[in-house]
Amino acid sequence: MKGRTIMTGAAAGPALVSRTPISFYGGVDARTGMIIEQGHELEGQCVSGRILVFPCGKGSTVGSYVIYGLQKNGVAPLAIVNEETETIIATGAILAGIPCVDGIDIGRITTGQQLRVDGAAGTVDTEKD
Amino acid sequence: MELNREQQLLLDGEAGEVTSRLMRLLVSLGDIFGAERMVPVGSAQVSGVSYKSIGDPGLEFLEDLARQGVEVRVPTSLNPAGMDLQGWQELGIPEAFAEKQQRIMAAFRGMGITAPPTCTPYLIGSVPQPGEHVAWAESSAVVFVNSVLGARTNREGGPSALAAAVCGCTPCYGLHLNENRRPTVLVDVDVRLASNADYGALGYCLGRKVRGAIPYITGLEGAGRDNLKSMGAAMAASGAVALYHAAGVTPEAAAVPTAGLELIRVGQGELDELSAGLDAGETPDLVVTGCPHASLEEVAAVAGQVRGRKLKVPVWVCTSRVIKERAEAEGYLAEIEAAGGRIVADTCMVVSPLEEMAYGVTSVDSGKAANYLPGFCKQKVNFRDLREIIEEVLE
Predict the structure, then answer these.
(1) What ipTM goes with this model?
(2) Given an 8 Å threshold on Cβ–Cβ distance, is A90 in contact with B29?
(3) Is-contact A76 A64, C-beta < 8 A?
(4) Are B26 and B163 in contact (CB under 8 A)?
(5) A62: which chain B residues are within 8 Å (Cβ-Cβ)?
(6) Of A48, B18, B176, B260, which has the most beta carbons under 10 Å away?
(7) Is the pTM here over 0.95, yes or no?
C-alpha cells in the first residue's frame, strides 16, 4: 500500500491495530509503553516492538512529547501507520525519529499481521506481498 | 516543498542533528498543510511552559534540546509558567512542582530564551508589525496579533513554535496567506459592552457559534485594547478562532470582502443566559483576574478599588513580571498588598496547580478562565465583572 511520508526510516514487525483514535497524553504510559486509557480497545496492550496502526491522534498536544518519551525510554512502536496523521502524531514521530506513514487504508490490516514500513517511500506492505 | 539554500542546509544537518530534526518537523507540517515554501519569521512565542501542562515528557524533551546546544535565532517569548518564579513559596506551590518548573525555565534559558513568561508579550514590547510573519503558539496571543495587530501567524503548537524559533522560518500556509484571511461569516452584535467580562462573555459566545471560522463582527466600535484582549482569548478558548475582523476597529477589516456571507446575530438575551450559566454564584475562596495577563491599566483599576480597604479572601492579579515591576513603581503593588491582595507574576490560574492548593471556588472576570478552570483546575467558577467580584470580598 502506498501512502505519504510523515517520517523517514524503515521497520518490520507485527501490527497492533486500533480502529479508534489514540490519545498519547494520558492514554499511553511513556515509561512502559502500555496503553492505559480506560475503556480504549487496546487498553492493557503494549506499543513497544510493534507497528502501531490507528486512524489518527486525538487529545492534548502534549501527546507529541509522550511519543518522544516512549522512544527515549526504549518502548516506542517500531513505526506508526495512520489513515490521516494530524499534527500531534506528526510532531511526536518526527521529534522521536519513528518511521511514520499516512494515507493508508488501515481496514486492510489486522493485529498480529507482519508489516514492513518504508517511511521514505511512504509504503506499508504485509510480509508476504 | 521548495526550500532556499539556507533552509536546505539546515535540513541537511549543517547546524547539527537536532536542528535538522526541527527543520524536518517544519517541512513535514508544511507538507501536511499544503505549504509550498517557508517564510522567515520575525519572532516566535512558545507554549507548553508550565510543568502542569507538559509534565515529565515535555521537561525531558526541552532538557535534551538544551543539552544538545540548540539555540533560537529570532526573538522568542514564552507562555506563562506554572508558578510565580520568585514568589512561589508564598503562594503555596508544592516544592516538587517548583523544582520541575525551575528545570523547564533553565532549559529555555539554555536555548537563549530569556523573555519573562507571559501570555501577553504584546503588552511588554514584543509587538509584531502589520503584515509581519511570526510563529506564535498561545491561542489568546495568536488571535490578538492576527486580528488587532494585523500580523500573521497560525495557531502553532509548542514544538512547532520552538522549531520556528530555532530555524528562523515557518511553513507558509493558512493565515500567512492573504486568501485565507478573508472572513467566512458575518456577526452582528447588539449587546451591552461595559466591562472586560462583557467582552469575555461575548467572546465565549462567539467561539461556540463560529468554532474555527473567521468572523467579521459589527457592533464593536467602542472596544479598547484590553476589551479585545479579553474577547479574543475567550473566543479562542471556546472555539478555535485565530483571526477575526471588527468593523471600524481592526486594521484589515476595511479591505476584506464580506459579500454573500451568512449572517449571525447576537443579542442581549442570549448573552445574559450564557453568562448566568457560567456563574456558579457560590462564595469564593479566591478571586483571580489577569486572564490574559493584566495590562498596567487593569492593575491600576484593581489598586484604585481596594485602596485603603481590606480583602476577606485572596485576590490575585496575574500579569507579567515587567508589568508587576511597573505597578510597583507606580505604587499599585503596595496598595493591592496593603489590602491583602497579590500581584502574581509569570503564571496564571489556568496553568497553576490550583486544585492542589485547597481552592474550590474561584471568581473570575475572564471568559477564557471560565471556560478552562472547571476542567483544568477542578474549580467551581463565579463569572462576573471585576468590580463586582472584588466588591463582594471587600470588608
Answers:
(1) 0.80
(2) yes
(3) no
(4) yes
(5) 48, 53-55, 57-58
(6) B176
(7) no
